[in-house]
Amino acid sequence: MTETILLTGGAGYIGSHTYVALKAAGYEVVILDNFSNAAEDVPDRLELITGGPVQVYKGSVLDRPLLARLFAETQIDAVVHFAARKAVGESVVKPLEYFETNCSGLVGLLQEMDAAGVHRLVFSSSATVYGVPDETPTPETAPHRHINPYGLSKITGELVLDALAKSDPKWAFGILRYFNPAGAHSSTLIGEDPSDIPNNLIPYIAQVAMGQRPVLQVFGNDYPTPDGTGLRDYIHVEDLAEGHVLSLQALLSTGQSHLVNLGTGAGHSVLDMIAAYSKACGRDLPYEIVDRRPGDVPVYCAQVDKAREVLGFEARRDVEAMCASSWAWVQARARGNAY
Ligand code: UD1
Question: What is the per-residue pLDDT for 339?
Fold first, then answer.
C-alpha cells in the first residue's frame, strides 16, 4: 500500500524539494502551507516537475480545526514538519511569535496526530541547537545551547519529542539537524525564494549576482578560521531532501526514533562561497568586509558518521553544484512565468 505523508510547510524551500524527492520515492504527499514564506505558484511548479496533481491545504499549522479536518479527510501515515519561523534576528525582536509557531504549533500538531492515530514525525531541527559548539565537526552528543529565541524554540521542539517518545512507545520521531542548505532543484523550477531581504548568505549572493543588490557584505574577517571569515557546512537542498526520504523510510520500517546531523562534514568560508558563486555566474562578485554580525558563530560543521550509520545518508553534491543550481534557478525565476 502506498503511504501518504503530510508535509507541513511543504511549499517552502526545503519542503518543496522534499515533496519532489518523496514523490520520486513512491509516496503520496499532501501539503499544508500558509504561504507566509513561499510563492503561491509553488504547487503549479511541483506539478510540472512531478507530472501529477498536487494536493494542498492552505492554512496555518496553528489552525487546529483545519488540522483536524485534514486528518479526517486523508489517511496520513507520517508527517514531515517543516512549518516554522527561521529568522534569527526576528526571533530576538518577536520571541513570542517564534514560541507560538515553532513550539505551540508543534504541540498542537502532535495532539491532532494523536487523535488521528498518526505517530510518526520527521522534525526540522537545526545546527543552531549547538549554539557555539566546543567541538567541530560537531557530533550529535554535543550539548544543547541556545544563543537566541529561534535556537531555544528548536531545542524545545527536540525536548518535546524526546519526552513524548519516552512517554509511549507508539511514537517515533526522526530529528534532523540541518546544517546550511543551499542550491536549487535541477529542473530550475523551484529554489529558495525569500519574500524579504535575504538573511542568509547564498540568497544574498544570488541577488548580488543578479544585479539586484550592489555588494555583498562579509560579516567579519577576524574569526579563527583559515581566511578569517565564517566557516559553514553547506549542504545541497536536493541531498537534504533525500535525507528526509531516508529518515521517513527508517521511521516507517523500524518504528525507532533517530536524531542525526544532515551536513557534508566539509567547511567552506564566506570567501570560498563568493569564489564558487563567481565561477558559477561567470563574473567576480563585489564584496566588502564589514563588522561581525552579532550572534554569529565562527564555525558550524557536522560530524556525519551517525547519519551514514543510521540512515545510510551521504551528501553527494558539492558547493560548485549548489552555486550553479542556485544561479540557474534565480535566472529562471527572474524570467517569470516562462516555465
Ligand atoms: C543562520 C542562523 C541559523 C539558522 C539558519 C537558518 C545566525 C547566526 N544563524 O545560519 O541559526 O538555522 O540561518 O536559515 O543567524 N554572511 C555574510 N554576509 C551575508 C550573510 C551571511 O558574510 O550577507 C556569513 C555569515 O556571517 C556566516 C555565513 O555567511 O558566516 C553563513 O550565514 P547564513 O547563511 O546567515 O547562515 P548561518 O549564520 O549559518
Answer: 53
Cell (9 digits) for 238: 536536493
Residue 310 belongs to some domain of the structure: no
CA-nearest residue, atom 33 of ligand 1: 200
Residue with CA closest to ligand 1 atom 1: 200
Owning domain of residue 31: 4-179+236-262
* Domain membership flag for residue 136: yes
> Where is average pLDDT lowest: 58-62, 89-93, 178-182, 286-290?
89-93
**Long-range CB contact pairs, 101-106, < 8 A, 24+:** 101/61, 101/62, 102/150, 102/153, 102/154, 102/156, 102/157, 103/153, 103/156, 103/157, 103/160, 104/62, 105/60, 105/61, 105/62, 106/81, 106/157, 106/160, 106/161
Of 92, 177, 219, the residue with max ligand 1 atoms within 8 A of its CB, to mutate for a pocket test, comes to 219
284 located within any domain:
no
> What is the model's pLDDT at position 209?
97
Q: What is the pLDDT of residues 85-102, one digit of tens each?
A: 999 989 999 999 999 999
Q: What is the CATH number of the domain that holds 71?
A: 3.40.50.720
What does the pLDDT read at residue 337?
53
Q: How many domains does the chain have?
A: 1
pLDDT, tens digit, 9 for 90 and up, residues 124-139:
999 999 999 999 999 9
- Ligand 1 pocket test: which of 132, 221, 270 has the largest number of ligand atoms within 8 Å of its C-beta? 270
**Assigned domain for 166 exists:** yes
How far apart are the CA of 223 and the centre of ligand 1, in A?
Answer: 14
Cα(194)–Cα(26) distance, rounded to whole angstroms? 29
338: pLDDT strictly greater than 60: no
Please say if 98 is a catalytic residue.
no
Residues with CB under 6 A from ligand 1: 86, 88, 126, 128, 150, 180, 199-201, 204, 216-219, 230, 232, 270, 293, 295-297, 300
pLDDT of residue 225: 96
